[in-house]
Amino acid sequence: METNKIYLGDCLEVLKTFPDNCIDCVVTSPPYWALRDYGVEGQLGLETTFQEYIIKLCDIFDEVKRVLKDVGTCWVNLGDTYYGSGSGTQYIASKIKQRSKCAVYMSKSLCCIPDRFKIEMINRGWICRNEIIWYKPNCMPSSAKDRFTVDFEKVFFFVKNKKYWFKTQMEPLTCPERYKNRLRNVSNIDNWKRKSMKVGEAPMINPKTIEATRKRGLEKGRNKRCVWKVTTKPFTESHFATYPEQLIEPMIKAGCPEFVCKKCGKAREPIINRIPATSKECPKTQTAHEARGGTGTPSGTVGKSGSGRIDGYTEHLGLTDCGCNAGFEGGTVLDPFSGAGTTCLVAKKLFRNYIGIELNGSYVKMAERRIEKECGGLF
């Protein structure tokens, strides 16, 4: 299996040539059902029924699951289809309806394909960790007068196992000023103490820990939420469904390791030392952040016993080393429907390896040109 390459061919057949557990992360957007004809024999998306489409798509992801590492992640952007009367974007759907002899369709209804796909994936053993909403503030206007304009698509975050590689992504606070009025504000500590203690007990609030938490939130932001506001971007070449780089950057950063052993394929993990409040190592009367020279993360509150220790302390000691001494490289990102090569391009920019699979030869050449143009002089 060769990395940093886009393979030409049917994705299912190409995937069968890959070894087991060789991919760190999958980021892709399959062709949506009954919306576009890409003019290639054997393409996905022109099945007679959406049930047939879902089965064929999930059969491909069965093979994706085989090549994905046990600690790997899988991100799938998938849009829905209105079943219409044959005008505008519903034209292909109406043609499919003419070919269908057994399916029953309700005109003008959403087919709920993303939800059907998610349920079938779970039925086949995938774990769905998140349903992300890609909000498009500059979405295409709709001429429909009897419904609202759709300005979002869904992205599903799947994994194979309960334990997997993941790096938390942060985002700016939507309203930093609220930190001055919320309970995290150290000026409210006296009020907190009165509410959090009983007669004869020590207060359950450590002012210095609360203040350190508040400052950390203002500096680093908050854990990234599930609604991502990303504007669509124009694409000058002949591809009709290119998602923006900004959409998939957090997927690769969160789900694909920066350092993977070249020999055994094991990713480097943070080494974290957690010190419980009951330990003598846990500092008293001051935050762990202060006690360790600012290298740790304080957490929790003062114990009820009045010992003065905070609930715990987390210390970051570096990254694991598998011991192979073979060196490290970026993890491998797979896009089995690479299209214009956006996933491969972003992976390259983030110093990861990539593998793309595409049925349309003109799209393969297009993607290779993009990657060479934008990354050829950088690496």
Could you characterize the architecture of this molecule?
This protein is an alpha/beta fold and 379 residues long. The protein folds into two domains: 5-169 and 226-267 and 321-375, Vaccinia Virus protein VP39 (Rossmann fold, 3-Layer(aba) Sandwich); 171-222 and 270-319, no CATH class. It is 27% helix and 23% strand. The chain contains ten helices and 17 strands. It has helices at 11-15, 50-67, 91-99, 113-123, 189-196, 207-220, 245-255, 288-291, 342-349, 361-375; strands at 5-8, 23-28, 68-78, 82-83, 109-110, 127-135, 152-159, 170-171, 222-223, 227-229, 260-261, 270-276, 296-302, 310-319, 328-329, 332-335, 353-358. The strands form five sheets. The chain has an eight-stranded mixed β-sheet, sandwiched between helices. A three-stranded antiparallel β-sheet has the order 12-14-13. Helix 2 links the parallel strand 2 (23-28) and strand 3. Helix 2 (50-67) packs across helix 4 and helix 9 runs parallel beside helix 10. The longest helix has 18 residues, at 50-67. It is globular and about 70 Å long. The model is unreliable at 86-91, 285-295 and 297-311 (pLDDT under 50).
Spell out the key features of this protein.
single chain; 379 residues; alpha/beta; Rossmann fold; eight-stranded mixed sheet; three-stranded antiparallel sheet; 17 strands; 23% strand; globular
CATH H-level superfamily of the largest domain: Vaccinia Virus protein VP39
| CATH topology descriptor of the largest domain | Rossmann fold
Helix content: 25-40%
Radius of gyration from the CA trace? Answer: 25 Å
Mean pLDDT: 82
Which consecutive residue ranges, at least 5 long each, have pLDDT under 50? Answer: 86-91, 285-295, 297-311
> Per the principal axes of the C-alpha atoms, what is the gross shape?
globular
